[in-house]
């Protein structure tokens, strides 16, 4: 079999990557292609996390309808994340999976192939592969062949150059233009939902904790003294319940019992979902993705450099990963119950106190001015850094 190995940052994955894969399968007769996202590339940093880049690849492949039984999203470099991801190590690993007489074809751009002599253990790498070179910059096949044989006189592999490919774009440009037609719509949506490639970069501080712990008090203090943007999950969620499509989904799920006319009765809805975990899960399935999208919009649209995401459900809604720092506002049960009374019963439907404490830096709420005396210097370190 002919096995293609296509490595890269895929940061983000775009139409040129798809064209390379498609031509590898349909024009050059590759039986299987291993797409290998770099974990820790030695020459260029990555912007998006490894898992997100793998997911963008999968979304684009599925959207394009490419034969997934002939394509492997190969995550082997993730195990090398604490060290540079050398291509020679990846190729040796793939060769172990496909011993001779299987052919390995390294899929590479013409600009990159001209830099092969600078790669780590390039000579050892070239003992294992043939080269399928995609001529993005229209370097002649003779120039590529001459260059390789000059630097690697013992190279005996095949060299096939594809000059019929049109790649007018680069990932570095697309990171600033994530709504480009060169990025699949499903990938664009994923980038938006995950808050990837924020430009300019924002400092996102998450403030979480159990009901009544003092999240709102901490947020109000910061807003009074600093110029920040606040994405309050509770407020976003309440506004979401005014949205007609969301109301239609909730009516279909729970019936008219949770409505007063055209308005959702939040008290009735709360009584239903907080007493029925399955119902709560169904409601969350409707609302959480929309809340997350609203948070990402707040982060991307504000001119402020610091954004607070505030709420008890940072982890459940999936915005914890957007935060550079997380504060967990915490206090003893009796202190919280004294402060909020019967609302304290809601804590039974939330994560445990220990689970919250594991999410970030724990800040003790003393329910007096000492609490704000603690917050102030901590936040100044963030705000003026």
3D architecture notes:
There is one protein chain. The strands form three sheets. This protein has a six-stranded parallel beta sheet with strand order 3-2-1-4-5-6, with helices on both faces. The chain has a five-stranded parallel beta sheet with strand order 8-11-7-12-13, sandwiched between helices. The chain has a two-stranded antiparallel sheet with strand order 9-10. The protein is an alpha/beta fold. It contains 17 helices and 13 strands. The chain folds into two domains: 2-194, Rossmann fold, CATH 3.40.50; 203-240 and 294-383, Rossmann fold (3-Layer(aba) Sandwich), CATH 3.40.50. The radius of gyration is 26 Å and the shape is elongated.
Topology diagram in text:
Layout: E1 2-8, H1 15-26, E2 32-37, H2 50-64, E3 71-73, H3 87-97, E4 103-109, H4 110-113, H5 122-126, E5 130-134, H6 141-151, E6 159-162, H7 171-174, H8 185-194, E7 203-208, H9 215-225, E8 229-232, H10 233-240, H11 244-254, E9 259-260, E10 263-264, H12 266-273, H13 277-301, E11 306-310, H14 314-317, E12 325-330, H15 333-340, H16 353-357, E13 361-364, H17 369-383
Parallel strand pairs: 1-2, 1-4, 2-3, 4-5, 5-6, 7-11, 7-12, 8-11, 12-13
Antiparallel strand pairs: 9-10
């Amino acid at each position: 079999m002919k096995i293609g190995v296509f490595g890269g940052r895929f940061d983000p994955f775009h139409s040129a990557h798809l064209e390379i894969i498609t031509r590898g399968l349909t024009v050059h007769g590759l039986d299987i292609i291993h797409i290998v996202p770099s974990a820790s590339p030695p020459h260029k940093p990555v912007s998006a996390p490894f898992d997100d880049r793998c997911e963008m690849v999968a979304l684009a492949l599925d959207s394009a309808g490419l034969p997934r039984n002939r394509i492997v999203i190969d995550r082997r470099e993730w195990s090398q994340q604490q060290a540079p991801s050398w291509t020679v190590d990846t190729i040796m690993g793939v060769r172990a999976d496909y011993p001779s007489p299987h052919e390995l074809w390294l899929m590479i751009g013409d600009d990159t192939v001209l830099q092969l002599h600078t790669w780590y253990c390039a000579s050892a790498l070239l003992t294992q592969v043939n080269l399928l070179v995609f001529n993005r910059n229209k370097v002649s096949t003779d120039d590529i062949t001459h260059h390789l044989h000059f630097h690697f006189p013992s190279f005996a592999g095949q060299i096939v150059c594809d000059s019929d490919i049109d790649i007018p774009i680069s990932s570095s440009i697309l990171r600033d233009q994530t709504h480009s037609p060169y990025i699949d719509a499903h990938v664009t949506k994923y980038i938006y939902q995950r808050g990837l490639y924020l430009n300019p970069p924002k400092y996102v501080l998450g403030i979480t904790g159990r009901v009544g712990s003092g999240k709102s008090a901490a947020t109000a203090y910061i807003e009074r003294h600093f110029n920040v943007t606040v994405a309050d999950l509770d407020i976003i969620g309440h506004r979401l319940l005014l949205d007609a499509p969301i109301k239609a989904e909730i009516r279909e799920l729970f019936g008219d019992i949770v409505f007063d006319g055209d308005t959702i009765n939040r008290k009735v809805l709360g009584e239903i979902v907080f007493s029925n975990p399955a119902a709560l899960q169904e409601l969350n399935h409707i609302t959480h993705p929309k809340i997350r999208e609203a948070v990402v919009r707040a982060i991307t649209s504000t001119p402020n450099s610091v954004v607070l995401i505030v709420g008890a459900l940072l982890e459940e809604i999936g915005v914890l990963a957007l935060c550079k720092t997380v504060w967990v506002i915490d206090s003893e049960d009796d202190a919280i119950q004294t402060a909020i009374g019967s609302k304290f019963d809601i804590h039974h439907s939330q994560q445990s106190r220990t689970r919250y404490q594991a999410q970030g830096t724990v800040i003790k709420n003393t329910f007096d001015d000492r609490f704000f005396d603690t917050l102030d210097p901590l936040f100044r370190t963030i705000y003026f850094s």
